[in-house]
Design brief:
Blueprint: E1 6-8, H1 25-30, H2 37-41, H3 47-87, H4 98-113, H5 123-132, H6 140-154, H7 162-179, H8 184-203, H9 206-217, H10 223-244, H11 263-294, H12 299-316, H13 325-332, H14 338-357, H15 365-386, H16 394-410, H17 413-424, H18 430-447, H19 454-459, H20 465-468, H21 472-475, H22 478-481, E2 487-490, H23 495-503, E3 509-513, E4 519-524, H24 525-534, H25 543-546, E5 550-555, H26 560-570, E6 574-579, E7 582-588, H27 589-598
Parallel strand pairs: 1-5, 2-3, 5-6
Antiparallel strand pairs: 3-4, 6-7
Helix pairs in contact: 3-6, 3-7, 3-8, 3-10, 4-6, 4-12, 6-7, 7-8, 8-9, 8-10, 9-10, 9-17, 11-14, 11-15, 11-16, 11-18, 12-14, 13-15, 14-15, 15-16, 16-17, 16-18, 17-18, 23-24
């Protein structure tokens, strides 16, 4: 009974074993389970239901976050283009020149010293967190990303709001999951829920939010993922509609041309050109970023240079400032001429790339839609000039080309189809959108393996393919896979008594406890049966005598991949699972296989 056991401590004792080596010390510190709330909740509710409750909470928080972010953009826009611009009134038409300079200068300091993750698009940073950092996003990112992006957009920076709101919503989900001490696979899902919630609320596009989260962020479509993300997006979209109303993001009515067979050839042309432009968008964006990175100046001076370029162009063409949905609506409504559309197409590409490259904070989705609308409008006006009796409405091509540019640059045709349908609110253009999106994605995928989001990760040397083809063995923790059918045997039970207990269940392993209920170790079903068949001591040999002298243990936060590797190295079939040094169960190879299949 009092046999002293030597316990081998070969696995990290804290939750840090759960993360990759690239997670920062601060993020490790944040990941500290609070009060065992998740474990307590599991006593009363099935885990799938608990996960849906978490998803609902993330959706509600994400919805309010999206509302707050849009209000913050409006606040900064009013501040810069009313108050600050008024202070520069003596400059005449050049009064807007300094607005982007001031905005980018302030943003550069915020992201440099407070949260470097807040720099850039937002979506690649979320992907990086999922792929390399255990889905941990620091809570401070919520505040810094919201303020810096709203400031950048409000001061005239040519970026969108989808990237920031994705990162903000994802940070909400990650922070909640980390605070509750959830395993990585749940953290990853809550990050996706937050991303989808942000899209759903800010664009009034719940289905688009679901598809964006599953196709772009999670890159995985399972029933569990889909259900949780749907709950989040519905909750977030509901909150968004309370504050902004239930209307499409793009207010212009899409002028639908009467169906004609010949139009499908034009749709094919739009799809091919939109895919080509999506590739150009990716390349120019990162070429200009490389140009800024190569300049041997301090970060703040690069921001000033970028602001000068953006402001200088904005003096002559103020249409390129900000998100630009006003001009997208104008393109759809045929209120912009051919030459101006072509000029705005080129300038929006340039100004967006400069804003991002100079250190600005904002998304690339809305600028892509802007460019798509101008590209489609140019194609439509040219077709009408060449074939004046075609009956084609250029505004329709402006609408469907938006879907093509995003589908091509993001390699996400399904999300593009759904998003543009919800943003326009017009089902009549669904067939052209489908044709254009699929063709554009095919063209861009052929020309570039990486998307506008993933290329940023590849350039940083991050292995994003582990996200595309997730290793489930590295995503499931030992604690999640811990079997519930293991027996608990008293140490003073005989072999015969123990075998009788085994025969009553399907358990392959059993805990052996002392008189105080403390787990001393574990025995396998096969070990007890072998002892029964090979000795005459079925009624004299006790369970404590079958325990190995050395017990190999593993922390509950270790992954199944680590557990399987340890079993192979030690040539054992099971390991003692511990929580903060205390044994809580045993995991065998069969448990790992079962958990892998169930995931």
């Amino acid at each position: 009974m009092g046999k002293k056991l030597h316990v081998v401590n070969e696995v990290g004792q804290d939750q840090a074993a759960f993360f990759s080596a690239q997670v920062t010390a601060e993020k490790r510190k944040w990941y500290q389970p609070r009060l065992g709330f998740h474990a307590w909740l599991k006593k009363f509710l099935p885990e799938p239901i608990i996960l849906l409750l978490y998803a609902l909470l993330v959706g509600i928080i994400g919805g309010f976050g999206a509302v707050g972010f849009r209000r913050l953009i409006a606040l900064f826009k009013s501040l810069f283009f009313t108050d600050v611009k008024g202070a520069f009134a003596p400059l005449g038409h050049f009064d807007v020149f300094l607005l982007p300079v001031i905005g980018l200068f302030i943003v550069s300091f915020m992201v440099q010293y407070l949260a470097p993750e807040a720099k850039g698009h937002g979506v690649p940073e979320v992907m990086a967190a999922i792929a390399e950092e255990g889905s941990i996003i620091r809570p401070r990112v919520v505040v810094i990303k919201a303020v810096s992006s709203a400031l950048c957009i409000g001061s005239g920076g040519s970026v969108g709001r989808e990237g920031p709101i994705v990162q903000i919503g994802s940070a909400f989900g990650s922070s909640l999951g980390a605070y509750l001490g959830l395993p990585e696979r749940y953290l990853r899902l809550l990050v996706g829920c937050g991303a989808g919630a942000g899209i759903a609320a800010t664009f009034n596009a719940p289905i688009g939010g679901v598809m964006f989260a599953t196709e772009v962020i999670l890159n995985s479509f399972t029933l569990q993922n889909f259900t949780a993300v749907v709950i989040s997006c519905v909750a977030a979209a509901g909150i968004g509609r309370i504050f902004f109303g239930n209307h499409a993001t793009l207010t212009a009515t899409v002028p639908v041309s009467s169906p004609h067979f010949s139009y499908y050839f034009i749709y094919i042309l739009v799809g091919l050109l939109a895919g080509l432009w999506g590739f150009v968008y990716i390349r120019v964006l990162y070429k200009i970023e490389d140009w800024f990175n190569a300049i041997p100046w301090p970060f703040w001076s690069k921001a000033i240079l970028g602001g000068v370029i953006v402001g200088g162009i904005g003096v002559a063409f103020p249409q390129v400032f900000g998100v630009g949905y006003t001009w997208v609506n104008a393109a759809i409504s045929n209120h912009i001429g051919l030459t101006m559309m072509f000029v705005l197409l080129i300038l929006k590409l340039l100004v967006t790339s400069v804003t991002i490259g100079a250190g600005g904070s904002g998304g690339v989705f809305s600028p892509g839609l802007y460019q798509g609308s101008m590209l489609g409008g140019v194609i439509g006006l040219l077709v009408v000039q060449i074939f004046p009796h075609s009956g084609l409405n250029p505004g329709m091509l402006a609408a469907i080309a938006m879907a093509g540019v995003f589908a091509g640059s993001a390699h996400a045709p399904v999300t593009s189809i759904i998003m543009l349908f919800e943003m326009t609110g017009d089902y009549k253009i669904i067939l052209p959108i489908m044709i254009v999106s699929v063709l554009a994605a095919t063209v861009t995928t052929t020309m570039s393996k990486e998307t506008i989001y993933t290329l940023k990760l590849v350039r940083r040397g991050l292995d994003f393919y582990r996200l595309r083809q997730p290793d489930r063995m590295k995503a499931i923790t030992v604690g999640d896979a811990l079997a519930t059918e293991h027996l608990a045997l008293d140490a003073n039970l005989t072999v015969r008594q123990a075998w009788k207990r085994f025969a009553e269940t399907n358990a392959w392993f059993a805990h052996v406890r002392d008189e105080k209920g403390v787990v001393m170790g574990s025995v396998a079903r096969a070990q007890v049966l072998e002892t029964m068949n090979q000795t005459d001591g079925q009624d004299t040999i006790k369970m404590e005598e079958l325990l190995p002298k050395t017990i190999h243990r593993i922390d509950e936060q270790a992954t199944l991949a680590e557990a399987l590797d340890k079993m192979h190295t030690l040539d054992v079939t099971y390991l003692l699972v511990v929580r903060k040094q205390n044994p809580i169960g045993v995991i065998g190879s069969s448990d790992i296989i079962h958990a892998y299949k169930e995931e």
